[in-house]
Specification:
About 40% of the residues lie in helices and about 20% in strands. By secondary structure, it is α/β, with parallel strands linked by helices. It starts with a strand and ends with a strand.
């Protein structure tokens, strides 16, 4: 499958790229950083340097690659958990404006499948509104929404000990996502709780 992965250099995306390539897929990995583009190329992906808020450039990039599947793993979160409160507006923007731009680009490119990252817990204020916008938009486009528990493991806010549920180890989240490409449109939870790998919601 040809996959356009937006957020390929993020904490989950960077682990997902090699899994998708190992499974035989062709992957274009989008990042805002030229430095990270080199890492994506070294991992075997076709690097795409683009800002999701540049709608015209994004549409051109996705259309040029002509993917069968567009995967939305974009977030805008600070490296330091103590700065999360001040970063909420940026993350809400990427879930709203970024999602709208990516879905429009996927439609223009004729992509037949969409998978997007959401979270398995209730939020408040603009964060919850942005989550609801993302999920509604992706489902209306016939896509799949993966609601992840809080990530833990190396490179996350919880590198040494797991947080309270809902949670999922980062490596497990990447492994399950790589197996999620054929899910039918809907909402699914991915957590450490006992049960199926992809728990349908609703």
């Amino acid at each position: 499958m040809r996959i356009f992965l937006a957020g390929a250099s993020g904490v989950l995306g960077s682990r997902l790229v090699p899994l998708l390539i190992a499974a035989g897929h062709d992957v274009a990995g989008m990042t805002r950083s030229p430095d990270k583009a080199r890492l994506l190329a070294a991992a075997g992906a076709e690097p795409v340097v683009c800002d999701v808020f540049d709608a015209a450039a994004l549409t051109a990039a996705v259309t040029d690659y002509a993917p069968e599947l567009v995967m939305h793993q974009l977030t805008d979160l600070p490296d330091d958990a103590a700065r999360l409160p001040e970063g909420r507006a940026a993350n809400a923007r990427i879930r709203q404006e970024g999602t709208a731009n990516l879905l429009a680009a996927a439609e223009a490119a004729g992509a037949s499948r969409i998978i997007a990252q959401s979270v398995a817990w209730e939020m408040t204020g603009e964060g919850q509104a942005a989550k609801e916008f993302l999920e509604k938009s992706v489902l209306e486009a016939g896509g799949v929404v993966l609601r992840y528990g809080q990530f833990y493991g190396p490179g996350t806010y919880y590198p040494d000990a797991p947080p309270e549920p809902p949670r999922i180890h980062l490596e497990e989240a990447a492994a399950r996502t790589a197996r999620a490409l054929d899910l039918v449109s809907g909402l699914y939870e991915l957590t450490d709780a006992e049960g199926p790998d992809f728990l349908p919601v609703g």
